Queue: 3 jobs
Job 1
Amino acid sequence: MEVLAVLFVLFMAAVYLATFVIGSMGLTLWAGASAWKGVRFKAAEKQRRQQQAERHAQAVSDYRKPYDAQRSAENLAYWQQRLKQDNAAAH
């Protein structure tokens, strides 16, 4: 009878240990999956922000193109005029 009691206690300890190990593995897998999902979410969010910033920069560039072209033409005309004046003054 005493041997059966010891075997029963050992069996129950093994069952509890197996339950603990399986539960720990499940918890570990759940934590890993949650962390991986968070990493993927942050990467996607970073990519969305980067694309939004690129679209904004492109929109600003497109908005400024006519102004920049006008300023460039004005600047070129100014320096051509200055060069003509300097050449005329030198002769």
Job 2
Amino acid sequence: MNLLLLFSLHCFLWAVGKADDGPTDLHQSRPAILLVPGAFHQGQIIYEPVRQQLKLTGYDEHLIHAIDLPSVGSLATRDDDVNAVVQVMKKYLEQGRDVVLVGNSGLQLMLLGIYLANNLQGYGCTVAGDAVAGIPSAINTSPYDPNGRRRGRVLNLIFFSGYLPYIAHVQHPETHPDIRLVSPTWFAFWPNGSPSTIPLTVRWDGDLVNFPPQKEFYNVLQQENPQQADYYVEQSVYPSPVESYTTCHYVKLRNSSFAALNAASRYIPYTGDFEVIYVAGKQDNSVPAPLWESYVNQAGAKFTLEMLDADHVPMVSRPRDVTDLILKYVQLGSV
């Protein structure tokens, strides 16, 4: 009997120690959710509907972090963008809190009617992918270190309508082409005086007559709420230190840095190191089914596939559905 009492006391004290070392109740143990935008988009604008939906479910707003990538509206590099995600992520990881990364891509890669995204790596999802290189994964890392202290891990990555680097292209970076060779006709590069000129920025407004954002990015939202779609393409004059060739700039959508978009990915997170969920949009005008299927069906790729009746930017056209999916994998990853 005495041995049984001693064993029970030991278990109780061990459990108390665990409680002191890290979060234990529902709100304290929930992972942080990092929201990473694609090219041309500002995280705090494009993810605001999802952030509000998460708050309505009772999610702590301090655990929801929409990231503005430095390369949007400036000349920052891809490394600057990756570092911006890493710095936010490490803040939570060092507290012993797990994280979920949500990525979206803002690039369409269609040239002469042929989809060529296998030659050009998309952006928001690949930044999130590069950011987790070397970070502990919930797949192969215990939530507690050898001393019993809670440690933060990446639970999963959720890619909404993302353009992804192919495994072969990261393994052979010499195959990565210049973005100008495979970009859609509505991309505009500045300056573009000659083929030898290295552009500073990439814009999305090169052919607004045939390829407006309401068609390429927000087509579902345009059908259901045209005024809201226009809101995300709102025009207004604001000072731009980068481009002085026009008097009209866009407040919601902005240019992206050429150096950032033209850079190659360095890491593939979806070969088993991390749990990666790919969410395809049934009405996505930018990522057709043959394209996302080519990602999912690669030899060595390990994805969980989800489908949404959404366009290329579901966080504004289907914020509740996006929120439900995020919470689904928050719960599954936390089990």
Job 3
Amino acid sequence: MPRLLYNGPGFQYVIYWRRKGSTYWNENIEQHPKASMWEVSVNETYALYEIKRSYISGIQEKEPTVVPKDFRLDPTKPIGAHRAHFIWEAVDTSEEKIKGEFKGYKVNVLWQKGSSQMEGEDHDRPDVRAAIDGLPANTALRAQVSVMNTHYTGPSSQIIDFLTPEGGMTV
């Protein structure tokens, strides 16, 4: 099974087997997700057997369903020519909302450069504030924040538009 499908806590394979024609299924639980084989001793080696495999998982990781609220520029810090500070409200980090293990937030900042769209980002931070460096001076930018679990990024917050002031070159 691909790694992406067994990333939730409590993942286990369930293996069922029975002699062909029997009504009763035997069951074994294999707790290692990377198991590629399993052996069982049977009375009749050359008889036909039916085998089924299933799995149990506490929760499989999916795209988070929560969206950070009140995403905005941090009013306590000025916007620099090459840096902006953001704050937002924390989200409910329960597994039901995050659809897996909470890893942090991802802040994306977008801008146009000629006919290309450029992007700066900061991620894997559990804090509800971020400073993004390396932004272009005197440029209109757009920013948004999302929640991340181990494998997915959730829906983005509302977009905020802002302008960086004029400034010197970054080294």
